[in-house]
Automatic annotation (TrEMBL):
CDD domains per the UniProt record, alphabetical: SQD1_like_SDR_e
Organism: Thalassobacillus hwangdonensis
Pfam family of the protein (one): Epimerase
Coiled-coil stretches noted in the UniProt entry, renumbered to this chain: none
Residues of the NAD-dependent epimerase/dehydratase domain: 3-291
Lineage per the UniProt record: Bacteria, Bacillati, Bacillota, Bacilli, Bacillales
Name of the protein this chain belongs to: NAD-dependent epimerase/dehydratase family protein
Family the UniProt entry places it in: Belongs to the NAD(P)-dependent epimerase/dehydratase family.
Length: 382
């Protein structure tokens, strides 16, 4: 299959591009390398030293003989995007290419406006490019479980049957996101739903949980193929961030009581979920939604799991409850459905002590790269 991976230089996109290439697909990466520039802006870095995109794809070709084409440019430059569609004629377009940090979107007005313009307009351009140049192309779009917020009822996969005044309908599940970033994903979902309805586009919205880990079989093949890992207060996500804090002897920074419960999955399952979606495309006109996660944990449970494993490895680790910089419920009901991907063949890699130790090992190996002052949260929602 001819597949474009937009955002293919990023944390989820890079291992996905390698995995799909290994499976025999004709893979093209589109990325404007903005994530690397945001590191410069924030004076931050990936814990692992990452090679340039050119070096990465050259090493992949050397090791496997497989070519991954690259296009460096912005989804918001429509002429560029059209050219990529013309040259690649994609059958699936995997869309990871957005600004994905909630704290980054909450820095100030400029960052909120940038996040929504980058994400919402970029996605709208992708929809128009599919309509204009590849109407049968399956859009596989990364959304987030954060679109739903934390309702006091079970979270369904995209739709919920509602009975109201004696009548019933299957309606989009209500969205109550908690940041301007998460809202950009909700806006994307609405735009995709309309495009499917009016133009007959086929789309799968993958509401992904928080991704942990870094390695896949492919990224382990050579140091030049290693994935990025974020740990700072802006781009670092719970679990990966805790493991890196443990490696440098920093307290594990739990925001507030830590009862916030979120859905998680291993990066190895991210890449497999994309393959499953690509191999089982949505029907023309269908706006399909999968909840892409395997387990959920409260933040304080994760901190305790990391503390235990770190201590077994001889590290002294404390858990610190910081004043919560976000506005969110710290104790709440959480139960979300995730059957559709499993029904299509996903076999989850669950979180075990071995998995935690494996990520901790990488963090320890590169701990001298950690810029300690970046670890604490610096952005407030208020
Ligand atoms: P990332 O920042 O590591 O990668 C995103 C990539 O997209 C970067 O390489 C960046 O340069 C590129 N990009 C951004 N805007 C672009 C634009 N306008 N044009 C071209 N390229 C652009 O992020 P990630 O962690 O790999 O996340 C990928 C996707 O998955 C995002 O859409 C994110 O919202 C979603 N997601 C991620 C997680 C997670 O835990 N990492 C969880 C849920 C959902």
């Amino acid at each position: 299959m001819r597949i474009v991976v937009a955002g293919g230089d990023g944390f989820c996109g890079w291992p996905t591009a390698l995995y799909l290439s290994k499976q025999g697909h004709e893979v093209t990466i589109l990325d404007n390398l903005a994530r690397r520039k945001w590191d410069d802006e924030l004076r931050s870095n990936s814990v692992t030293p990452i090679a340039t995109l050119e070096e990465r794809v050259a090493k992949w070709k050397e090791l496997t003989g497989k070519e991954i084409r690259t296009f460096v440019g912005d989804l918001n430059h429509y002429d560029f995007l059209r050219e990529v569609f013309r040259q690649t004629e994609p059958e699936a377009f995997v869309h990871f290419a957005e600004q994905r940090s909630a704290p980054y979107s909450m820095i100030d007005r400029e960052h909120a406006v940038f996040t929504q313009a980058n994400n919402v307009l970029g996605n709208l351009n992708v929809l128009y490019a599919i309509k204009e140049l590849a109407p049968d192309c399956h859009l596989i779009k990364l959304g987030t479980m954060g679109e739903y917020g934390t309702p006091n009822i079970d979270i369904e996969e995209g739709y919920i049957e509602i009975e109201h005044k004696g009548r019933k309908d299957l309606l989009p599940y209500p969205k109550q996101p908690g940041s301007f970033y998460h809202l950009s994903k909700v806006h994307d979902s609405h735009n995709i739903m309309l495009a499917c309805k009016i133009w007959g586009i086929r789309a799968t919205d993958l509401n992904q949980g928080v991704v942990y880990g870094l390695h896949t079989d492919e990224t382990r093949m050579d140091p030049l193929l290693v994935n990025r890992v974020d740990y700072d207060g802006v781009f670092g996500t719970a679990l990966n961030r805790f493991l890196i804090q443990a490696a440098i002897g920093h307290d594990l920074t739990v925001y507030g009581s830590g009862g916030q419960t979120r859905a998680f999955l291993n990066i190895q399952d991210t890449v497999r979920c994309i393959e499953i979606a690509a191999e089982n495309p949505a029907e023309p006109g269908e706006f399909r939604v999968f909840n892409q996660f395997t387990e959920y944990f409260s933040v304080k449970d994760l901190a305790q799991m990391v503390k235990k494993v770190a201590e077994e490895e001889g590290l002294t680790t404390e858990i610190a409850h910081l004043e919560n910089p976000r506005v969110e419920a710290e104790e709440h009901y959480y139960h979300a459905v995730n059957t559709k991907l499993k029904d299509l063949g996903l076999e989850p890699h669950l979180l075990t002590d071995e998995v935690l130790k494996d990520i901790l090992k990488v963090a320890l190996e590169h701990k001298d790269r950690v810029i300690k002052e970046n670890v604490l949260p610096s952005i407030s929602w208020k």
